[in-house]
Amino acid sequence: MVKNNIEVDVKIKCIENETTQAQLAEDVGTTGQYVNRIIKKNVGVVNKTFVQMLEVLGYDIELTYVKRVTDVKTDR
User: 2 forms bridges with which residues in the sheet?
Assistant: First the structure.
């Protein structure tokens, strides 16, 4: 089981960083529609087979987000 909801986490991190999904998409090199589609999916980011393999092995998946010291928005 994935303990995090990665898609919601991305949305929250956008809000915390005062970044729109459109800005995020541009920085990543994709479209705003694609980022929005990923965020709206329930299990869109983590590979289902990867999760199943770890579940069979008896593991849950927990992610920890650590803010880097350098700001990725320095070119704006």
Answer: 61
| Tokens describing residue 37 | 């589609």
pLDDT of residue 74: 58
- Tokens, residue 5: 């909801």
Two structure tokens written together for 1: 């089981």
Please provide the distance, in angstroms rounded to a whole number, between the alpha carbons at the two ends of the chain: 38
Predicted TM-score (pTM) of the model is 0.64
Helix (H, G, I), strand (E, B) or coil at 61: strand
Of 74, 2, 67, nearest to 41 by C-alpha is 2
Q: Which two tokens stand for residue 41?
A: 């999916």
- Please state, in angstroms and rounded to a whole number, the distance separating the CA atoms of residues 60 and 3: 7
